[in-house]
Give the backbone structure.
Amino acid sequence: MREEHEDFEPARQAAERLWALAEPVTPMAIRAVATLRVADHLSQGPRTADELGTAVGADPGGLARVLRYLARQGLFTQDGDRFALTEVGAVLCSDHPRSLLDWFTGDGAHGRADLCLSELAEALRSGESAYSLRFDGSDFWTDLAANPVLSRSFDSLMGSRMVEHARTLAGMYEWEALEHLVDVGGGDGTLLSTLLTRFPRPRGTVLDLPGPVAAARETFRTTGLEHRADAVEGSFFDPLPPGGDAYLLCWILHDWDDESAVAILRRCAEAIGANGRVLVAEYASEGAASELDLRMLAYFNGRERDTEALTALAEQAGLSLAGDHVSKRVSLLEFTLGHPM
């Protein structure tokens, strides 16, 4: 009996570990209260489920059950029939400095897109993106362009993330040596405005779709950079605006499959001229075993790539690696039309 018990214990622990990894109740409950903006209503002080239900338009009985469960997970506290935020739950507040609200809301760009992970098995069978299977053949970028709410959510998320990345990138390259930097797919202009504010010499251009371009122009206006920065509408699959001595791709290529990534790099190669640079920023340590890599697979059939893989794609586009800079999990690769390193 003792030997049987000893054999059973590792199996029990393995089953518990798998259950903890795979059970969907906790993440879906978090997404439910995020979508209802429960944390914002609790930021003013403790509330009952009845009060919260009235405020967010939800059934109080069901909401109380979800809140009690998430209190056990550490997002809320419960005192009698009143619930309050913990430090962890407060991260779901819209005004939290590290807010994750838009990552989890069902009406936000990423919270909505994450629902496609339920289609991952069929996506692996068919080779289609899980996103297109979940959303009736549509794709992420088409949905953003057609839905201003999703577009604003995405721009907000990328802009807040880019603030931190911009500080890192600012110390990774001789930006002051440039005359004209083109941020290809540059979103709301957060990165470009940070670089131009710190480095007074270069001029800058954001190239992106109409929604982000409008946001970028507003960013440049509010930061007083209109005289040095502009934003133009366009696609990085079409010829890029000429005149830049560096074309920057920040977290762009991981959104695309290899064929599309080569096409984007080829457009940059066409634009830089003999002495120009193509600069590619991606995560240095995510690799093919990361959660982000699976999101890229599900959303776009994209992927995370290391320096070797990115260099191989760049070579197909007629580019050669001229520099490899790494800092704080960010990799900045420099490509030219010249000879490789």
